[in-house]
Design brief:
Structural class of chain B: mainly alpha
Strand content of chain A: under 5%
Shape of chain B: globular
Largest sheet of chain A: none
Shape of chain A: flat
Largest interface: A-B, 72 and 65 residues
Structural class of chain A: mainly alpha
Helix content of chain B: over 70%
Number of strands of chain B: 0
Radius of gyration of chain A: 24 Å
Strand content of chain B: under 5%
Order of helices and strands of chain B: HHHHHHHHHHHHHHHHHHHHHH
Number of helices of chain A: 5
Helix content of chain A: 55-70%
Number of strands of chain A: 0
Number of helices of chain B: 22
Oligomer: heterodimer
Radius of gyration of chain B: 22 Å
Distance between the termini of chain A: 63 Å
Chain lengths: ~150, ~500
């Protein structure tokens, strides 16, 4: 018992916190009786179950050592999520084509092995495919370009 | 025998629906896209289905289901291609096909291996459809008598099975089911109309978008992991696959046909169980073939039995997975949960009444499986060269394209960035869950089943005057809930058992 299983300790704590939050938040909805349940009853019951399950995960983890090491892919996590965020930020103001270009450039840093010129080519190709497919073929109401100014 | 004759009537009705122009077109589109997306590693069945989900809003429900189902079983056909040629499963259920498929490719027998998996997939699929057609009317006849108690019990059992049988810690699976149900409750309460857990956001009054949730949890978090792990090795993909090289020897044929039948049987059984599906079925089939083989040492070194058994099993499971989904409205796997959501979006309540009230839909979809499987046979044998060529596309060119489709798909739901932010949230959550070793499948099942589970729970207690023992006074609901409690007890025991746990 040198290192505790911190992965399960964290999991258990998070689940209990979430369960407690659900119980707290459901308090604003009427509980009702078991015969006529209000909107708060089912979520409250689930919140308590979640705390219980969280405890079941948390407590044994203290008496056990970790068996695997956890690897976290920080680089790809940051840039893949960053790519989605950049899309969400640009698309309402500039339209889908510029948003795809920005997204592709940000996402390419997750891997970092493509040369900048290849990234730009890929970005333009993907933007074209996106516009043709969603605007011209599927006919959705997505605007290819927008000018906020 | 009454159900048999209704199956034959239904088949005739369904065939007429399935060969209609639009349905035929979406069937072709579905299986082609499914094969394409299945071949590419890192794009599983869930990403494929969720990508096309927004498109189904514009289709009528039969065409929508025909297409998504085609994508679903098409990916299973395609998934084995990259397993054989690259030793990377294109879909998780093709993982077992690497064990003997890749050694066959290294021996220069890639053509035979591809031929064998396609035929095995077809045999498995066919047997699965026959069983689906035979059993569905029978189940429906009995299910029409179910009340709210039975439905609640079935859902509880299904979710319990889905969370405890799949890989990883069973208690963590149960935790994910509960989180999923809670996420499903984010919408207006159906009795009082009070919006719940909306945090003042108008967009949440109608609930969390299933597409954004599924794409974030499965698609984006898969990309995050794959960027560094999938190496684009195209060694065996350079092999020239000619039709001539696909002809199996007489020995191959005589070794294959029994494993195909056994595999189909195993797959059909596991497909109907909640939470298991093609992945577990294919592992079981592999284990069985190894056990009954006269020379088990050949396994792992290119034994054709070890390839065709699992391949027929996962395709057979794909077809029978529709039995609980379409007859009871209870999906066993996340992919089935999305199929169910298609029906709900179109205002159709899934359940035993579906087959009675909408026979064209039910039988049309089922008969389209025949057409789809035949098409896949054509797509996968003469056109295999095209799919093989695709495998030479390196992943660092591919993943920005996946992200582009995910973003546009999610954005197009409402033409608003809100869904994209939902996607960001669930992508982050999905990755944290992966790191903490939680699996996302039970969460998605809980999310889809949550609202109707609450509805049945409240209705059951309303009928029974608030009496909890009523769940155990009805024989059927008592039996089913008893099963669920056994699984729960096992999960708790597995968690508390002091021995070395993963």
């Amino acid at each position: 018992m040198r290192t505790r299983d911190y992965r399960d300790v964290v999991s258990g704590v998070l689940l209990i916190c979430f369960g407690a939050f659900v119980i707290y938040y459901s308090a604003r909805y009427e509980l009702g009786t078991f015969r006529r349940m209000g909107p708060g009853m089912f979520p409250t019951l689930l919140g308590y179950s979640l705390c219980l399950v969280g405890g079941l995960i948390l407590v044994p983890a203290f008496f056990r050592s970790a068996t695997e090491t956890v690897t976290i892919e920080y680089r790809s996590f940051i840039f893949v999520i960053g790519a989605l965020v950049s899309f969400a930020l640009t698309v309402p103001h500039f339209g889908i084509a510029p948003a795809i270009v920005v997204m592709t450039i940000v996402s390419s840093f997750a891997d970092g092995r493509l040369r900048p010129i290849s990234v730009l080519m890929l970005a333009v190709v993907l933007a074209t495919i996106g516009v043709v497919l969603f605007h011209n073929i599927l006919g959705t109401a997505l605007a290819p370009f927008k000018w906020p100014f | 025998m009454e159900s048999l004759s209704s199956a034959i009537d239904g088949a005739a009705l369904g065939l007429g629906v399935a060969v209609q122009g639009t349905n035929l077109f979406y069937c072709v589109l579905g299986v082609t896209l499914g094969t394409l997306l299945g071949v590419l590693p890192g794009i599983g069945v869930l990403i494929s289905i969720s990508l096309l989900f927004p498109l189904t809003f514009y289709l009528d429900p039969t065409a929508a289901l025909v297409m998504l189902a085609g994508v679903f079983y098409g990916t299973t056909y395609g998934g084995s291609t990259s397993a054989i040629l690259l030793n990377v499963p294109g879909t998780p259920s093709a993982a077992v096909s690497c064990l003997d498929g890749y050694p066959m490719a290294k021996q220069g027998r890639a053509g035979v291996a591809l031929m064998a998996t396609t035929v095995a997939s077809f045999v498995g699929g066919t047997i699965g459809i026959v069983l689906l057609m035979a059993f569905s009317p029978f189940i429906v006849e009995n299910a029409l008598r179910f009340g709210a108690h039975e439905y609640f019990a079935l859902m509880a059992m299904g979710l319990m099975a889905a969370s405890t049988i799949t890989q990883g810690s069973p208690v963590k699976g149960i935790a994910m089911v509960i989180v999923g149900i809670l996420l499903g409750l984010v919408q207006a309460d159906f009795y009082t109309g009070i919006p719940r857990f909306s945090f003042g956001m108008l967009e949440l009054y109608e609930g969390i978008s299933l597409v954004a949730l599924a794409m974030g949890m499965f698609g984006v978090s898969e990309v995050i992991v794959s960027v560094r792990t999938i190496k684009s090795g195209d060694d065996q993909a350079r092999q020239n696959i000619t039709l001539r090289s696909m002809i199996p020897t007489r020995d191959d044929v005589s070794r294959s046909w029994l494993p195909m039948l056994r595999g189909s049987g195993i797959g059909a059984f596991f497909g109907t169980l909640p939470g298991t599906g093609g992945l577990i079925a294919s592992f079981m089939a592999y284990a069985l073939e190894k056990r009954v083989s006269r020379d088990p040492s050949r396994f792992g070194g290119g034994a054709i039995e070890g390839l065709v058994g699992p391949e027929s099993a996962n395709n057979s499971a794909d077809q029978t997975a529709f039995v609980p989904t379409l007859t009871l409205g209870i999906p066993g796997t996340p992919a089935m949960a999305i199929m169910l959501a298609v029906l709900i979006v179109h205002g159709i309540t899934p359940g035993p009444r579906l087959i009675v009230e909408q026979p064209e839909l039910f039988w049309g979809v089922v008969m389209s499986f025949w057409i789809g499987n035949l098409l896949l046979l054509i797509l996968n044998i003469p056109m295999i060269g095209i799919w093989v060529r695709l495998l030479t596309v390196p992943y660092n060119w591919l993943y920005p394209a996946i992200l582009m489709f995910v973003c546009l798909g999610v954005f197009s739901i409402n033409n608003s960035p809100f869904e994209v932010w939902t996607l960001v949230f669930f992508a982050g959550l999905g990755y944290v869950m992966r790191v903490l070793d939680f699996s996302a499948a039970p969460l998605l099942l809980g999310f889809v089943l949550g609202p109707s589970m609450e509805e049945h729970f409240r209705r059951a207690l309303l009928v029974a005057d608030g009496d909890f023992t009523s769940f155990f006074q009805r024989p059927l609901s008592a039996t089913i809930l008893g099963l669920a409690f056994v699984m729960l007890a096992w999960a708790v025991w597995a968690q508390l058992r002091p021995a070395r746990q993963l």
